Amino acid sequence: MADEDQGRVGQAMDAAKAVKQVEQVAKAGRAAMLLANPWVWGAGVVAVVFLVATVIIGAVLVGSAPASGGTGQAPAAGGTADCGKPTGTPKDIIDKLILPIAHTIAFKDITPESVEAANDAHSNSTTSGNTSEHKGPPEVAWAADISNTGATAENESSMTPEMGKLADTLAKCFNVKWTGRGLVNGYKGGYRFQLIYGVGGAENGGNHFNHVHIGVSKQ
Ligand SMILES: [Zn+2]
Q1: Residue 119 Cα to ligand 1 middle (Å)
Q2: If you measure from the C-alpha of residue 171 to the centroid of ligand 1, how many angstroms do you get, rounded to a whole number?
Q3: Distance in Å, CA 134 to ligand 1 centroid
Q4: By three-state DSSP, how is residue 187 classified?
Q5: CA distance linking residue 202 with residue 146, whole number of Å
Q6: If pLDDT is split at 50, 70 and 90, which confidence band does 55 have?
Q7: Where are the alpha helices (DSSP H) in the chain?
């Protein structure tokens, strides 16, 4: 083979390489175009959004399932909530049944000691002249005033959603026929439960807009 021929073969091989390179560049270009294509991107974003939404909806459904059947939901109206059986002295019922219910709703700070201190400081008689359940003695009668407001107005502006929920819950626990406010007695297990909230005036024991009164006495 002459030098000249060898040179041509070399050129032909270079040309073949060049074609390959062009093909590779074209491939890379198509890939780049694919990535740059807004439709491809759009479809990808839609797929990711759909996946995330599915996961979130799934998590919400799983998370809400126990709440709807558990303690997160108030018991059905007229039904009796599972609040435990009232036993012992009225003070026992306040301390062991009622205060834990208050704690689960919003009233974290109330304790048997704070109730006792408040009852020690309470006046002896009610506005209607009867002996207040706050004064006990604790084996006969006991009462707790439960509040999460410092409001003093004797009207609806002193009421709070948490106190409303507490009154609703206690009413269901202790067979009190409750319509959201009033002075109403319920009876369960040989005890009388007196619920006062959202009312005022002497006939209701004074201002009960700014606290929930729950009194317990042995029948
Ligand atoms: Zn009271």
Answers
A1: 9
A2: 16
A3: 6
A4: strand
A5: 19
A6: very low
A7: 3-36, 38-69, 90-93, 99-105, 112-121, 161-173
Measured in Å, residue 195 CA sits from the centre of ligand 1 at 9
Q: CA–CA separation, 119 vs 108, rounded Å?
A: 19
pTM of the shown model: 0.64
* pLDDT tens digits along 159-205: 999 999 999 999 999 999 999 999 999 999 999 999 999 999 999 99
- 182-188 β-sheet, strand order: 141-146, 212-218, 191-197, 182-188
Instruction: Please tell me the distance between residue 69's alpha carbon and the centre of ligand 1 in angstroms.
Output: 33
Q: State which amino acid sits at residue 112.
A: P
Rounded CA separation 204/181 (Å): 11
Which residues are CB-contacts of 199 (< 8 A; sequence separation ≥ 6)?
181, 182, 183, 208, 209
- Report d(CA 43, CA 27) in Å as an integer: 22
How is the chain split into domains, by residue range?
3-69, 90-218
In DSSP notation, 26-40 reads: HHHHHHHHHHH-HHH
